[in-house]
Design goal:
This protein is mainly alpha-helical. The protein is about 50% helix and about 5% strand. The protein is built from 9 helices and 4 strands. The chain has a two-stranded antiparallel ribbon with strand order 1-2. It has a two-stranded antiparallel sheet with strand order 3-4. A hairpin with a 5-residue loop joins strand 3 (about 105) and strand 4. Helix 3 (about 60-70) crosses helix 5 (about 85-100), helix 3 (about 60-70) crosses helix 6 and helix 6 (about 115-130) runs antiparallel to helix 7. The termini are far apart.
Length: about 180
């Protein structure tokens, strides 16, 4: 049996969660934060757990799950949420949040920006309920936010992704692109 060589345009096999037969979240190189990203982490959860519970007490459990998920990326879109959860869960979360107008404002890119107090409360409560997952998501959010910092326009995201695929991406080359 002859294997075909992989090309840059070769689509990887999508892995599925066998328990519910849905695709897993998008993969992103996020093993550990580099020292430069650790210095740039700007979001902190400096809220007392009781204050967080009080602020989020009016939401149902599923709505709290939506808030937990949407509290990690700074810019919220279906695309960014898919890095944390399945495409279905990302879409459900985004659709719910987009209808909850009092909880967000809109970025110039049309992404949603969660209210800071709600974001702090959701992250604080999530860290108390699921500390391991909260830490993983915080690391992933830092990487994603750093990427958006380097490539703020969605129309240029493909450039970085394709250059990374061919091993060209280096921070020194970034300035030549923009």
């Amino acid at each position: 049996m002859r294997k075909e060589p992989k090309t840059i345009l070769h689509a990887p096999k999508v892995t599925k969660d066998s328990s519910i037969n849905l695709p897993l979240p998008k993969s992103l190189k996020k093993n550990d934060l580099s020292p430069s990203l650790k210095k740039e982490t700007t979001f902190t959860t400096e809220m007392d757990i009781k204050d967080a519970e009080k602020l989020l007490s009016s939401f149902s459990e599923i709505e709290k799950e939506y808030l937990f998920l949407s509290s990690y990326p700074t810019r919220i879109s279906r695309y960014t949420l898919e890095h944390f959860e399945s495409a279905r869960q990302a879409a459900l979360t985004y659709n719910w949040l987009s209808r909850a107008k009092s909880l967000h404002r809109t970025h110039s890119s049309k992404d949603l920006l969660l209210d800071d107090d709600v974001r702090k409360a959701a992250r604080t409560l999530h860290a108390s309920v699921s500390p391991e997952r909260a830490e993983q998501w915080a690391t992933l959010a830092s990487v994603l936010d750093a990427f958006h910092g380097l490539f703020p326009l969605d129309s240029f995201h493909w450039v970085a992704i394709n250059l990374q695929a061919v091993g060209f991406f280096r921070l020194a080359n970034h300035s030549k692109l923009i």
